[in-house]
């Protein structure tokens, strides 16, 4: 029997949608861990060992299109979780996942999480509803990568990162952003330079500061707002 404990204040929205008893079970059966910048959490087509519920920081979902070139298809922060595809009864990761911004998370063994999914239909339903949101995000990113300029995509990615880190100061190198967007580093340098000239961001040695949220939103494409609206509408399903 799991020992009782005083529940911490957890700002993971997905967990917060759970009924009190389920929320308590997850808190007591998760281990607090640090998410380290650049850390690989999952490899595509390899077994998922742990699921993660970010509290701070965020995780990127990457797919390789050619050797040594990848696109970031999704971003996970405290609105969701990494490993939700276990609800589809597939034990392997669909994409590579790396920590884009350092932070904290609650981690659970995949086997224990699977057992809870099997024994509690309500938890499975919640996770499947969240997966619907993720699928929309992936589809939106795929369309965005094909249709919009690097400047717009960079602005969108910075907005998504800020939403999940809740900070105006982001730890993002040009090299990492190039990997996220699937473009050459020089393309990111040009796009970031434009945003800096407009007074929207400042950049110094791998640190990006967002100076104007409104300016970043104006520079982004509609894909950012479409994803936000989708999440807000779908989150009503959780309640």
Q: Can you characterise this structure?
A:
The protein is an alpha+beta fold and 239 residues long. The protein has two domains: 133 residues, Sandwich (Jelly Rolls), CATH 2.60.120.10; 72 residues, Arc Repressor Mutant, subunit A. It contains nine helices and ten strands. A four-stranded antiparallel beta sheet has the order 2-6-4-5. A three-stranded antiparallel beta sheet has the order 1-7-3. The protein starts with 12 loop residues before the first helix and ends in a 5-residue tail after the last helix. InterPro entries: cNMP-bd_dom, cNMP-bd_dom_sf, Env_Response_Regulators, HTH_CRP, RmlC-like_jellyroll, WH-like_DNA-bd_sf, WH_DNA-bd_sf. Pfam families: HTH_Crp_2.
Number of separate structural domains: 2
* Spatial ordering of strands, largest sheet: 2-6-4-5
CATH architectural designation of the largest domain = Sandwich
**How much β-strand is present in the residues?**
15-25%
**How many angstroms does the end-to-end distance come to?**
29 Å
CATH superfamily of the largest domain: Jelly Rolls
CATH topology of the largest domain: Jelly Rolls
The unreliable regions are 1-8
Radius of gyration: 18 Å
Average pLDDT value?
87
Outline: globular
Question: What are the SSEs and their pairings?
Answer:
Blueprint: H1 13-16, H2 20-29, E1 31-35, E2 40-42, E3 50-54, E4 58-66, E5 69-76, E6 96-101, E7 103-109, H3 110-119, H4 121-147, H5 150-165, E8 169-171, H6 174-181, H7 185-197, E9 201-204, E10 207-210, H8 213-219, H9 222-234
Antiparallel strand pairs: 1-7, 2-6, 3-7, 4-5, 4-6, 8-10, 9-10
């Amino acid at each position: 029997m799991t020992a009782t404990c005083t529940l911490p204040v957890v700002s993971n929205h997905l967990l917060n949608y759970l009924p009190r008893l389920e929320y308590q079970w997850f808190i007591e059966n998760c281990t607090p861990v640090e998410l380290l910048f650049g850390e690989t959490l999952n490899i595509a087509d390899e077994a998922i060992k742990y699921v993660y519920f970010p509290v701070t920081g965020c995780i990127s979902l990457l797919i390789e299109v050619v050797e040594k070139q990848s696109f970031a298809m999704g971003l996970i922060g405290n609105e969701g979780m990494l490993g939700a595809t276990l609800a589809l009864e597939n034990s392997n990761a669909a994409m590579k996942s790396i920590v884009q911004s350092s932070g904290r998370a609650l981690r659970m063994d995949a086997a224990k999480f699977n057992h809870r999914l099997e024994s509690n239909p309500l938890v499975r339903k919640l996770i499947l509803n969240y997966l619907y949101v993720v699928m929309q995000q992936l589809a939106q990113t795929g369309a965005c990568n094909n249709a919009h300029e690097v400047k717009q995509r960079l602005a969108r990615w910075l907005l998504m990162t800020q939403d999940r880190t809740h900070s105006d100061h982001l730890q993002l190198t040009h090299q990492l952003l190039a990997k996220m967007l699937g473009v050459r580093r020089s393309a990111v340098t040009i796009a970031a330079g434009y945003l800096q000239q407009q007074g929207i961001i400042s950049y110094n040695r791998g640190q990006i500061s967002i100076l104007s949220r409104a300016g970043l939103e104006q520079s982004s494409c509609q894909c950012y707002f479409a994803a936000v609206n989708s999440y807000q509408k779908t989150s009503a399903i959780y309640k």
